[in-house]
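Handout, page 2. Input:
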Amino acid sequence: MRGYNRNKQSTGYKNFGNDDKKSKFHKDSHNQPQGLQVFVRDGEDINKALRKLKKKIERAGILKEIRDRQYYQKPSEKRRIAKKAGIMRWKKRQRELEMNR
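Output:
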């Protein structure tokens, strides 16, 4: 194990002799814009486009993530909140099952 360098960090770029093709981990492959997009057609109402954008943001969970990141939460607090939410979901499910009987 003489030639093995334990402290050497991997660059993350894998190019196995394919210089002409960009590999999966190539630097230039990350230059594309990322995020949510709403395409507005000619003559389409701007309010409809805003509703579409709001719906995409809701589904992606962006606002929830922003609210969660506003302040630091200890891991123990996250677990406590998640457990409490799970109990509430279970109780709601039990109530719904009771009503359907």
